[in-house]
Amino acid sequence: MFSNFRQAMAWVHTWFGLVLGFVLMACFFFGSLSVFDREIDRWAIPASRHAAQPMPSFDRLLQPIFQDMQPSKESLDYLRDRVDGPLPARFDTVRSWGAYTTHRDPVLSLFTSYEVPNAKDPDDAARGNRTIDPRTGAALPDDRLKIGSQFFYPLHYSLNLSWKDLGYWIVGLAGLTMLVALVSGVVMHRRIFREFFTFRPKKSTQRSVLDLHNMTGVLALPFHFFFAFTGLVIFAGIYFPVTHTQLNPLHELHEKLEAEETGLPHDRAGVAAPLASVDAMAAEAQRRWAARGMAGEVGLLTVSHVGDANGYVSVYRAGTDRIALVGDGIHFKASTGELLREDPPRTAVDSVNTFLTGLHLQHFRHWLLRWLYVLGGLLGCVCIATGFIFFVEKRKKQHAAAGSQGSRVVDALAVTTVTGMLLAALTILIANRLLPESLPAGWPPRGDLEQYLFWAGWALAMAHGFARSAPVAQGRPNPAWREQCWAVAAMAVAAVLLNWLTTGDHLARTVFIDTYWPVAGVDLFLLACAGLAAGAARRLGRRTAAGVRPAPRAEAAHA
């Protein structure tokens, strides 16, 4: 089929990259935004615009809130068909309470789980969650969408398609394809070191985008390979679900044996017992961490088998001073505060796994490295986008002569994926600032409406890309690129202005007066995006004008 191995690799690189490059583009872009997901949350929820807080007092602040919590509507809707009989009006048997925060979180996430009477599957639990201000305990409105951590972040690894874990599988296939594309790209480029330093922006579009494709691909090659690989490692349990399928009986037995070895009860005793001071347990955990030379704050705190004699409290350290995602858990008997267990050092295999996971999820404190993550992700976007453009530029005249619509379809999909994705992200930010605080009765929740508008914005961008793609069938540029770049520039500026008008947090205030970099950073990023989009639109306009200008010989003949 191919005369040599390099030609075979070129075919693999082209078609594998084209087919799943559209998914990879979303993974890289929203993965880049997810590096600062908490900061985007603060921009989207003005009530959370205050300094990050440590874990508050459990005894004084959190325990009364937990005692008042009940399962969420979404959890109850899920359980209705999984129980024999109606669900109770109130759930009293609590499996667990939990509170989670990070060094970048101004709010505290609380979660609970409850025993479900008459559940067909004993593992089913009714779950509740709440987000509070850790300074006062006041709850944030339930309909506020954390756009960064609850939407952009899961979008980059699951496409927010939860049915049958379909999104995970599509992204996993795209990640595997990314590894193939990287290896085949290295094989097909014999002068890879030279191409690292070659960029000719004043050449033809085809030549310029190929140079940029090669340069960004080589520059960020280790980053792209590592993140595609670790993404697959993190979700290996979904792609190879032997633990909870083929090995399910063995898994349950292992959990019980592990509970016996660790001293942490697997089941409830059925005997009521009070809860001792959790604050004292947290203080003791911090003292033990300090004695081991790694003082730190509490990142996660859970109470298991609440109100039962087998209840225990687990305190996990916020390991922001290290790359590996290790909690260094310390566990106490809930009724007395007696120490039950300190998590031992990890095995070699566990250490590698936690290191790879931590490096991918970047929960550590290192702002420069975070920005390098963003740069690496955006370089991946540039590499994929220039691959799309090169594919179209190389084939559009040939396809136009043959009457084929292939280049036109690819170009329209590229517009949808590149500029359309930006328009969708800006749509949800603008909707967040424009929607009223309370919606009329019968309307969907505010957060759901923001998500609907995101997808609607992306769909409109796709429709525009296809509607304006007719010139590609004649070998000419698609004006949708330029028009959507101008739309991106206008909408990015509009988002910054709307943030100012609806909250009063203009850049002069967030940078100089009441310095608050999370919100200022989002605004500055939006303005930088607007500047780049406007520059790209002007450049595309000049190229289009140059492309339609009559040739000198034709001009002379006309004269």
Keyword list:
559 residues; alpha+beta; seven-stranded antiparallel sheet; 21 helices; 7 strands; 59% helix; disordered C terminus
Task: Describe the protein.
By secondary structure, the chain is of the alpha+beta class. Helix content is 59%, strand content 8%. It contains 21 helices and seven strands. It has a seven-stranded antiparallel beta sheet. The longest helix is centred in the last third of the chain and has 36 residues. The two termini are 53 Å apart.
Topology:
Blueprint: H1 5-34, H2 37-44, H3 58-68, H4 73-79, E1 94-100, E2 108-115, E3 125-132, H5 147-158, H6 166-188, H7 192-196, H8 205-219, H9 221-234, H10 236-239, H11 248-262, H12 278-291, E4 298-304, E5 312-317, E6 330-333, E7 339-342, H13 348-361, H14 367-402, H15 406-417, H16 419-434, H17 446-467, H18 480-503, H19 507-513, H20 517-548, H21 552-558
Antiparallel strand pairs: 1-2, 1-4, 2-3, 4-5, 5-6, 6-7
Radius of gyration: 27 Å
Question: Which regions contain 5 or more consecutive residues with pLDDT less than 50?
Answer: 549-559
Annotation field: number of helices: 21
Query: What's the end-to-end separation, in Å?
Result: 53 Å
N-to-C order of helices and strands: HHHHEEEHHHHHHHHEEEEHHHHHHHHH
Order of the strands making up the biggest sheet: 3-2-1-4-5-6-7
Helical content band: 55-70%
Number of strands: 7
**Shape descriptor:** globular
Determine the structural class based on helices, strands and strand pairing: alpha+beta
Strand content: 5-15%
Estimate the mean pLDDT confidence.
89
Biggest sheet architecture: 7 strands, antiparallel
